[in-house]
Amino acid sequence: MSNQQKVAIVTGASQGIGAGLVKAFRDRNYRVIANSRSIKPSSDPDVIAVAGDIADRAVAERLVKEALSRFGRIDTLVNNAGIFTAKPFTDFTQDDYAKNLSVNLNGFFHVTQLAIAEMEKQGSGHVVSITSSLTDHAIDGVPSVLASLTKGGLNAATKSLAIEYAKRGVRVNAVSPGVIKTPMHGPETHAGLASLHPVGRMGEIGDIVDAVIYLDNAGFVTGEILHVDGGQSAGH
Q1: In its keyword annotation, does this UniProt entry include Cytoplasm (predicted)?
Q2: What is the pLDDT of residues 56-93, one digit of tens each?
Q3: Number of folded domains in the chain?
């Protein structure tokens, strides 16, 4: 088995953007380690499905171990797993707070730390995190404090890591979406969600996948927060 074929780890990979990313990487001949709580085994020998909660460090360890033992390397990590809880600030429960920090921050921290350690040994690698344009441009009627707290933290960490590892061959970027048409948004919500974007529509899964693939190929880009949000972060 050649270890020269590139390898990507994708979290939150069972549906929506994550599933789109797995397909896009396979279309480009990457091998993929795909993770989510409910992911099913893959019939593709070049896709290894690892079920489990990415907030658990043992799951992150398993993802990295599988990538190295099966495929011998890690070239790209996409931190796609995340949750969004829209409530007025004073209505958030302790459980809401714990779940958002657990998935959005702990999940990022564990797998990114482990993956970057391996990338540094290789002298190359790329980390992309999926964040949210609400961190830059809050919208009246869309309460998003926990998203801003956690995804905004990922944007800041992206820049910090990009500078820390710039001379070690590891790039770190983020894609900051608007509202994307995925299974988490029922059709009855689409008209209202479309109106949140100056272009007047929701984003498609392919819009985010294209942005991730662009960044993965853009060797001179690091520390970038790429807004793919129909103009949402620019203003209303």
Answers
A1: no
A2: 999 999 999 999 999 999 999 999 999 999 899 999 99
A3: 1
